[in-house]
Write a structure and sequence with these properties.
Transposase, WH-like_DNA-bd_sf, Trp_repressor/repl_initiator
Length: about 90
């Protein structure tokens, strides 16, 4: 029977990385505790440190993406009103 691949959540990876950063126990002890390979813990720790600056960086604003669609919706509404007006004018 084929063994399925385990998937780990971001919170679990962060938890393991923080434990590795504390250096209160060795990688071998952490590997036994969390049932992981020590190399995997090292790679998660390295990735955590490389992306640590993102935790305090500016958050992406969702308003920027919405501001581009607002004028488009306005234009669609205007064209719809003009189209309806022209249909009524041609019907007479």
């Amino acid at each position: 029977m084929k063994k399925s691949r385990r998937k780990f959540s971001a919170s679990f990876k962060a938890k393991v990385s923080i434990e590795a950063l504390k250096e209160q126990s060795s990688l071998q002890e952490l590997a036994a505790k969390f049932e992981l390979h020590p190399t995997q813990i090292s790679s998660w720790k390295r990735e955590f440190l490389e992306n640590a600056d993102l935790a305090f960086g500016s958050k992406p604003e969702k308003e920027d993406s919405d501001s581009g669609t607002g004028p488009l919706y306005n234009k669609i509404g205007q064209l719809q009103v003009e189209n309806d007006f022209l249909k009524k004018a041609l019907g007479k």
